[in-house]
Specification:
signal; seven-stranded antiparallel sheet; TRYPSIN_HIS; Peptidase_S1_PA_chymotrypsin; nine-stranded antiparallel sheet; 454 residues; Thrombin, subunit H; mainly beta; serine-type endopeptidase activity; Chymotrypsin-like elastase family member 2A isoform X2; 2 domains
Length: 454
Amino acid sequence: MSPLALALLCLQLARGDGAWAPLEGLPLVSAHPCRHSRAVALWLEPGLPPARTDRYYVHVDTHIPANSVMNVTFDSAVDIILTIRSNETFSRGSLTDGDSFALRFDSEMAGLSFIVEGSTPGLTPNLTGLSINDQQYCEEPDVGYLRKYQAKEALRNNEYPWKAVIRKSNTNCGRPHLSSTPAIENGPAQPGAWPWHAALYSLRNYATKYICGGTLISKNFVLTAAHCVYNWTTGMAFPAITLTVGLGQHVLNENSSHSQVKKVERVIIHERYNNIKLFNNIALLKLSSAVSVTNFVQPACLRRGGELSAPTASDVGVVPGWGLGNDDTLSGSLQQVLLPIVSAETCVSSQPPYSSYNLDRNGFCAGYHNNGTGVCNGDSGGGLVVNIPNEKESGSGTVSGSWYVRGIVSHSVSVDDTQICDANYYSVYMDVYKYMKWIDDQIWNDTGREVLAT
């Protein structure tokens, strides 16, 4: 007969000076169920509900002579799962539905391990005895020792010292689902072309008024400009209860079957926002409930590094919005404008009014000079998005892309003696890439876990 050996997970475990313990970092803990012996150790996954603590690993850390008999008992029926190695081949075997087992080993062994699974759903089986050649290795077993590793209740936010941001690939963001995708031109946008663009409304004097644009970046958060939600009188953010967000809209102030209107739960303004020079002009709105992702409501992508690490003059972005048109009134339906990004030197030298702003190191300029095409009042807070090609799709030979938030519409030069934009000057945008850590931090601090599309 070929020598046989037992191993857990296809490994023969050699005896050491102490009971083997799981590698640091594995989601397992080791426990010793026998009060006066450490020769028997269990490995189990902690934090599971009682109904799922019926599976664990047993390791016997002692020398087992050839022709030995091991008896092992439990307080309820179990299955024992063994991996058997003969020379260099392996096979898996099970001993099923018993509360007592006798195993004979023809060969000498340096310890052994096996998996225990309860036969009765929801009932955790406890080891009550283990002997080898009538020598007891588990005297006075601590029956019920597994209970302390069971979860008592689900985790609650802000109770435990860990938080997470969950990210999904760009296949889940920045890809409008249009029946056709015509070339992008300045002017009216196609319905559904920019499904992440949001309309911000404020309740003032018992009337709801459109104030700014925004960009949906997850199911629960909208990115916008700080000045859109800042009360100059109080020096504080607008109360969340006074704000609402419209998503999936094409016609301003008109809901359709594609629209989703959300209340705002919390307003988060950058802690270093300067309401005079508009430095750090960025804010997040936490929605009171998650949006439903549809063809008309979808987050834009966020980028960390790569080609978006610094705007260059070769970048061209698109800004959707309902901002003022040539007649100085808000647009009735969503418009779009293509705007090239320009260097800070070009921006400042062409428009002296910006020299006092110094373009905040976290901002950049985009648009045209003496062209009359650009963003205006009402476009603030909206996103300048750029399309980044993906890898060639397998077998198709075609290249597709996703839309990423490059900047947030911040401010521009106004016509003399008015508060209306002058479309002959460049406009300033907050560089979203430089605020990625801030965005992650706010979401971590606020919710503990959230899905961001990247």
